[in-house]
Amino acid sequence: MIRIGDYNTLEIIRETEQGIYLSDADDNEVLLPNRYVPEAFQIWDEIEVFVYLDNEERPVAVTDKPYVTRDDFALLRCNQVTQHGAFLDWGMVKELFCPFQEQAFKMKAGGWYLIYCYLDEETDRLVASSKTNQFLDNKELTVQQFDEVDLIVSHPSDLGMNVIVNKMHLGLIFSEDIFKDLSVGDKLKGFVKKVRNDNKLDIVLGKIGYRKIEPNADLVMQYLEDSSDGFLGLNDKSNPEDIKRELQMSKKTFKKAIGTLYRQRLIVIEDDGIRLVD
To answer: Are residues 220 and 182 part of one domain?
Structure first.
C-alpha cells in the first residue's frame, strides 16, 4: 500500500511522456513527474519518494523532502490565510492546509506554529492542526522514571514549559528546572524525572545524577518524593533492622545510597533522619 504523506520505496515499472510510473508490492501505481526523474535509471529499480496529493487531488510522487511527514510534529511558517483557512510552508510545491477549526489560536501570515500533520479520513487530504494536545495520550505510558526521551517544546504554562515526549505523551518541565532559553518547536533530549499518580510526566533536561552513580539511591529518593513531607526517619546511625524493615536493604547499602544523594546535594542528613532539599 502506498502511504500518502510519507516516504515510500517503490519500483520503477514504466516510462511515459509525463514521467515514470512507480508501483508497490500490491501493484498500486503513482506517477513521478519528469522534473523529479533521476538522470539514470532502469525499469525495476527501486527509488525512495514522498507521496502526497497534487493541486488536482491526485496522488503524486516527488523526491523533495518535506519539513514534516504524516503523523509527526513540526514548526512551520504560515504563508497565507484565506477564507478557507491557513496555508503553511512545508517545503513542497502545494502548501499544507490548516482549517480554522484546527487552529489553537488564529494563525497569521508570517507566523510560526507548532503543528501535527495527519490524514483527514473524510477527504484523504493531508492537513495540519496546531491543537497538538489532542494527538497525545498519557493514559498508557510507554516511558518510566529516569528514561531518556526525545522532546519537542510545545507551549508555555504558568508552571513552566509543556513538552511533547517521544511524539506520544505530554510532559512538563517546571520553571525551576529550566536553565536555558527554550522556544516552541525546539527538539532536544531529556529525562523523565517523575511519573505522577495521574500519569503526568515531570521532565528535566539534564541527566539525573544519582541515577547514573548509585542505583540504590533511586529507592531512597522515591521514598522521599512519595512522602508528604519529604522526610525519612532513618540515617547512617539507624539500627540495621529498622533500615531493612523500611527499605529492604542493608545498612551498608543504605549508607552508600544516602552518601550519593548527599554529595549530589539532593538531601540533608539530620539527627533523626534525612530530608529532601527544597
So the answer is: no
Query: Which range (9-23, 39-53, 164-178, 200-214) has the least confidence?
Result: 200-214
Indicate whether this model's pTM tops 0.85.
no
In total, how many domains does the chain have? 4
Rounded to whole angstroms, how far apart are CA atoms 265 and 254? 16
Grid coordinates representing 254 are: 543504605
Residue 170 lies in a domain: yes
Q: pLDDT tens-digit profile of 239-254?
A: 999 998 888 888 888 9
* Full domain range(s) for residue 55: 6-62
Cα three-residue angle 146-142-113, rounded to 5 degrees? 95
Mean pLDDT of 200-218: 74
Instruction: Tell me the sheet residues that pair with 61.
Output: 51
> Does 140 map to a domain?
no
Are residues 99 and 43 part of one domain?
A: no
CATH code for the domain of 108: 2.40.50.330
C-alpha cell of residue 201: 510526566
Contact 61, 36 (CB under 8 A): yes
CA atoms within 13 A on the CB side of 148: 7
Q: Is the dihedral of CA 204, 206, 209, 211 positive or negative?
A: positive
Question: What is d(CA 153, CA 164) in angstroms, rounded to the nearest whole number?
Answer: 6
Q: Identify whether the C-beta of residue 186 lies closer than 8 Å to the C-beta of residue 152.
A: yes
